[in-house]
Amino acid sequence: MSTFKKFADQVFSKQTFRYLFTTHFWGPVSNFGVPVAALLDLKKDPDLISGPMTGSLIVYSIAFMRYSMAVSPKNYLLFGCHAVNEVAQLAQGFRWANHHYFSEDKKLEDVSPKVA
Fold first, then answer.
1. Does residue 67 fall inside a structural domain?
2. I need a surface site. Which of 38, 62, 68, 95 has the fewest CB within 10 A?
3. How many other β-carbons are positioned within 10 Å of the β-carbon of residue 64?
4. CA dihedral over 51, 57, 58, 63, signed as positive or negative
5. Per the UniProt record, which residue ranges are transmembrane (predicted)?
6. Number of compact structural domains in the chain
7. Distance, CA of 68 to CA of 62 (rounded, Å)
8. Does 28 reside within a domain?
């Protein structure tokens, strides 16, 4: 039996198809929109980042990373989705904090006199 045939039998097995039609698969797949959007937003202006929402998503991803390992069977796809989201949201959080608290442009705006 060829290596390709063994691989094809494994990929197209009843177990694989059964897994593809469960929420254990489709939940994380549909949830991947959040980290993909966060990764695509890394190049956008930091003024558009919501600090409270980013903080919430950081906590949310940590909680669901833990949940994905607590369920039986362990959901590695869900874990991976939230691990990617955690990294992306932390990057957004650092960008937000840098822009609002540590950037030189922001410090100059706070010091400059307001003209009515």
1. yes
2. 62
3. 20
4. positive
5. 48-67
6. 1
7. 10
8. no
